[in-house]
């Protein structure tokens, strides 16, 4: 296992790439920690979750002969999730991070347990994991319990596109269920792996959308015949914020040498709307936010978030709170807010392009206004999507509710923060797709003038999915395809390798 895991590695495995198998170092570390757990069980020493109950029941001692029953009961009792199942990519990322945490040799499990988790990835067995139920503090207990059920031959999983019971899914993949030993059920469910997995995938999508939104801003400015003056490096040198400076430089590069910019150099317009003039400041703030969020998420990918944790060097088992999701919950709530801002900012530019009093373009970008509605209703959809984002931007972490009779008295709600952040990102991708279609449509009314080579290529790539609107047609399928391709990285608007 690499000493550190990156967000890009998580995404690759989530999409089907192989996870690294256990190596000799992994096996030695796992074995050393397991030996500590077995000594604890043999001595009947009081260790949380190994020889005691859980949560408020931690004072209940468990006899040696019942330690395996304790682990199976734990998994079964905690598998009480609700809602639609998590997407396949999220579950695969969860499996990858679960295996990564266990293989670092501080959880006290056996190597065969880690190998079975990795085998689910290798043989494309995807546990059915309900999306609702985690409070994000004693780890993502409920979602991870649904994964653990499959490992013992219970629950449900998808294999080859077919949803089967856990035993049938393992059998179809040529695998055998495992009987949990002491500590192993707790190790499986006591981690932040849903928060971290969904967060890692969300960050990658958000980074792509920020770049798409930056290109969309440049195209909208060209269609609007706006000014590039607010992107001047001298302005941004006087306010040395990192993100705004980077976005200003990116916009200067996208627009350098544009014939459209030159065509209206002396038009007399003093200032553009904020969504053009202040694009470096707003998009740059989002860029800074993503840097903070990505750093917080990436640290978690190489963490051990089980409890208690085993330290073979000192022959100790220490109980702590590494499972608590607050280090992820706050950044993930921030992510939803940042992507809400991105969508809101984009929708306002679409509105401006469709309003002839703003941009001097045909009403609603229709070649025949009145007979045709053009892009009018696409903006309605953008407004509805932004409104949903505004609701979802409310922080999940602000709503802590105690559990386990008050033993777990402050919960992070980080799983909801992660899941809703992905929903906001999906909505934002739809809104940006709408802006791109509007910007391309508006810019083409300025022909034969042409923008820069890189932006003309971006127009061609958008037009390969959403052709010019000559007569009214349903745009739903085309815009959805564009949004999905932008979010996944399947469609890149430019060839800048640093931005993929």
Strand proportion: under 5%
Q: How many strand segments?
A: 7
- In N-to-C order, the SSE pattern is HHHEHHEEHEEHHHHHHHHEEHHHHHH
Structural class: mainly alpha
Spans of at least 5 consecutive residues whose pLDDT stays below 50 are none
Rg, Cα atoms, Å: 26 Å
CATH top-level class of the largest domain: Mainly Alpha
Q: Oligomeric form of this entry?
A: single chain
Name the CATH architecture of the largest domain: Up-down Bundle
Question: Which strand order spans the largest sheet, edge to edge or round the barrel?
Answer: 2-4-5
Features:
Fumarase C, Chain B, domain 1, 7 strands, three-stranded antiparallel β-sheet, 500 residues, two-stranded antiparallel sheet, elongated, mainly alpha, Fumarase C, Chain A, domain 2
What does this structure look like?
The longest helix has 32 residues, at 193-224. The protein has 2 domains: 7-191, Fumarase/aspartase (N-terminal domain) (Fumarase C, Chain B, domain 1), CATH 1.10.275.10; 198-499, Fumarase C, Chain A, domain 2, CATH 1.20.200.10. The chain is built from 20 helices and 7 strands. Helix 4 packs antiparallel against helix 5 and helix 11 crosses helix 14 (279-301). The strands form 3 sheets. Strands 2-4-5 form a 3-stranded antiparallel β-sheet. It has a two-stranded antiparallel ribbon with strand order 1-3. A two-stranded antiparallel sheet has the order 6-7. The protein is mainly alpha-helical and 500 residues long. It is elongated, with a radius of gyration of 26 Å. The two termini are 25 Å apart. The model has no long low-confidence stretch (mean pLDDT 94).
